[in-house]
Amino acid sequence: MKCVICNNMLTNTQKKTCSIDCRGKYVGSLNVGRTAWNKGKKMSDSFRETCRKRQQGKSWSPSTQLTSESLRVRWADPEFKKRISAAISKARKGKKFTEEHKQALKGPRPNQRGENSHSWKGGNKQDRGQGQLIEYRLWRADVFERDNFTCILCSNRGGKLNAHHIKKWADFTHLRYEVSNGATLCVPCHNKTKKHEEEYEAELSDKLGEAT
């Protein structure tokens, strides 16, 4: 028995196609000219909540994980990525965004700004962009020098380093330029602390205590 798309011989006679690519083309050919049953329809809030509860605590099946992993591997192939991008561009050609979609692309909606934003921190301006300030640059240099340009978590010396605030920059403004509130971290270790600053406070303080 042969594949209905490329005419290659099938190893599994119960299937109609020989590969994922042929399978996609075959399914696509079946849907040509058909309108999706749910086109233009929106899920009700109650149905959305029901779906969310059904998925809580569930993990992917081994077969789903395998498929996901294989797609990640294939996406690393430039030719595969180029082919998919071309297919998406072709599908979008001639279509126009609605005004609602255009507004959504411009940035956060009004109900997601300010106090309604998930990243709202009580109005404390995150002016780390003022890292060009001489005070900040001097503080960072003092922290690096004190720690001998060595990450205090993994002990790697040199390379790209960050000066980390043990007590949050936004919450403890009076400690921003205190050298005792700084710790030298390499980029990988610094990334680990993001959104977990409070969990690392004690460990960083202990490490600095041992060093001194």
Defining key terms:
two-stranded antiparallel ribbon; mainly alpha; 44% helix
Folded structure, characterized:
By secondary structure, the chain is mostly helical. The protein is 44% helix and 5% strand. The protein has helices at residues 20-30, 45-55, 62-75, 78-92, 99-106, 134-146, 187-193, 197-211, and strands at residues 161-165, 182-186. The protein is elongated and about 75 Å long.
Classification by helices and strands:
mainly alpha
**Number of H- or I-type helical stretches:** 8
Helix-strand sequence: HHHHHHEEHH
Termini gap: 76 Å
Strand count: 2
Overall pLDDT level? 81
Unreliable runs:
none
Oligomer: single chain
Rg, rounded, reads: 27 Å
Name the overall outline.
elongated
The largest sheet is: 2 strands, antiparallel
Helix content: 40-55%
Strand order of the largest sheet: 1-2
Which percent band covers the strand fraction? under 5%
Topology at a glance:
Elements: H1 20-30, H2 45-55, H3 62-75, H4 78-92, H5 99-106, H6 134-146, E1 161-165, E2 182-186, H7 187-193, H8 197-211
Antiparallel strand pairs: 1-2
What's this model, at a glance?
This protein has 212 residues and is mainly α.
